[in-house]
UniProtKB/TrEMBL annotation:
<dbReference type="InterPro" id="IPR006620">
    <property type="entry name" value="Pro_4_hyd_alph"/>
</dbReference>
<dbReference type="GO" id="GO:0005783">
    <property type="term" value="C:endoplasmic reticulum"/>
</dbReference>
<dbReference type="Pfam" id="PF23558">
    <property type="entry name" value="TPR_P4H"/>
</dbReference>
<keyword id="KW-0256">Endoplasmic reticulum</keyword>
<dbReference type="InterPro" id="IPR045054">
    <property type="entry name" value="P4HA-like"/>
</dbReference>
<keyword id="KW-0847">Vitamin C</keyword>
<keyword id="KW-0408">Iron</keyword>
<keyword id="KW-0479">Metal-binding</keyword>
<protein>
    <submittedName>
        <fullName>Prolyl 4-hydroxylase, alpha polypeptide III</fullName>
    </submittedName>
</protein>
<keyword id="KW-0325">Glycoprotein</keyword>
<keyword id="KW-0560">Oxidoreductase</keyword>
<feature type="domain" description="Fe2OG dioxygenase">
    <location>
        <begin position="283"/>
        <end position="369"/>
    </location>
</feature>
<dbReference type="GO" id="GO:0005506">
    <property type="term" value="F:iron ion binding"/>
</dbReference>
<dbReference type="InterPro" id="IPR005123">
    <property type="entry name" value="Oxoglu/Fe-dep_dioxygenase_dom"/>
</dbReference>
<dbReference type="GO" id="GO:0004656">
    <property type="term" value="F:procollagen-proline 4-dioxygenase activity"/>
</dbReference>
<keyword id="KW-0223">Dioxygenase</keyword>
<dbReference type="InterPro" id="IPR059068">
    <property type="entry name" value="TPR_P4H"/>
</dbReference>
Amino acid sequence: MRLQDVYALQVASLVRGRFQRVTDGKSIDVYLPAVSVPLSGDDCFQVGKVAYEQEDYYHSVQWLEESVRLFRGTGGVWSPENEGTLEDALDHLAFSHFKTGNVSHALSLSQELLHYDPENGRVLQNVEKYEKLLVSSSPESIRANELRRPTSNHLRTRDTYEMLCRTQGSQQPLQFENPRLFCDYFTNGNPQLLLLPVRREVLSVQPYVVLYHNFITDKEAEDIKRTSHPGLKRSVVAAGEKQATAEYRISKSAWLKGSSHSTVGKLDNKISVLTGLNVKHPYGEHLQVVNYGIGGHYEPHFDHATLSTVEAGGSTAFIYANFSVPVVEKAAIFWWNLHRNGQGDADTLHAGCPVLIGDKWVANKWIHEHGQEFQRRCSLNPEE
């Protein structure tokens, strides 16, 4: 359901094995799989049932509508591999419509259900209740029952976040429109990079965000993934003085010390050379390796080398700066999340868009303010 919402995917197209959304009245492919496998009525019922059990009736209505349509297409004949039936789908869909305020649909579906199970006392009571509600309702309220996405959990940044995830691009000027955005071979004035400079792409000036291409080799990426595998656990977030799992962060992660593999030490040195900062513990965190499977995401937050690529989704969206960066395999993205005066930079609020197709691996390196007093000095301007 998260993928459906963020990428505005049509349920009807998902049922056909396609990934499409409607833009300007036209259906466009978000992702075109090599093989399209349609879903069955029971498949749709199982998805709708999950939403139903979470009291997410906005999504349960959409999926159960498809389930009922497909079950009807088979004449309601039950198949041994099905866990659900047409009667199950009608029952769940009727109550879902009732909970979203569409009492007339709830009534008609319940009446249809009675054709299959005329002695069902609960459904008979529901029919009586729905009929009374319709009699006491105004015609305007009955006509106004349009299915709407609930806003109870609506983040203030949700619309921007989802738009950036869908476009996988920028609302800012492109490089050829803004001379302050450029690509170059970067040495940071360090002798270690004179003969082998790094390909740098400046993506944003405020906040300062750069992408270092080919930061990590294929072998180094595999070393990191292989070393982290045994320690991967569900990612947690700060919850007061404790840490806990959260729905807004779905991933697995592991922490690697510099001594866990020679490649980790090499990456620490490379990060230090590129940034000019002291990254050794305790001035920097250990390397955090994160795996986002399909649907894995991290909603807007303040805090990464990319070890793999994905077929669709997985961009990093900068919410207030209003641009997103697609997954670039073996690249590293870097930004300052503190101003020189030590104040946080709100423009670095960012989110990891859900992975639609593929398996996303990233490595994060957080560098502390403490220990950088002579590496990144304060400015004479107290506002910087």
